[in-house]
Amino acid sequence: MNQLKSHIISIQLSEYIDEKLEWNSAISDRPVEDKWRIKVLIFQIEDTKVQPKETIMKVKTRLIDVNKNEYKISDFRIE
Fold first, then answer.
1. Which residues of 22-46 are buried (b: 16+ CB within 10 A; e: fewer)?
2. If 0-12 CB within 10 Å is exposed, 13-18 middle and 19+ buried, where does residue 18 land?
C-alpha cells in the first residue's frame, strides 16, 4: 500500500457501487457504521508515464457524535 500511495497523482471517483449499514438501536436511530464501495480511477506514475487504473475503494465511516449525526472516516482500502 505504501508503494502504491507514493506513486499516486490523483484519484477520481467514478461510480457508486453500494454500501452496508450497521445499526445499534441502543446508541442511535442512525447507522453507527457505514461501509461504502466506490469505483475509482487512480492516476499513478509508472516509470516516466502516467497510467490510469480503475479499481474499487472501500471506505468505512463511523458515527462520532450522536447529537449532531457526525461521521468520520475510520478506514479506507484500495483493492
1. eeeeeeeeebbebbbebebebebee
2. exposed
pTM for this structure?
Answer: 0.73
- Alpha helix ranges (H) inside 13-78: none
* Average pLDDT, 10 consecutive residues per value, the chain (79 residues): 69 94 90 95 90 94 92 92
CA 30/CA 15 separation, integer angstroms: 25
Domain boundaries, the chain: 2-78
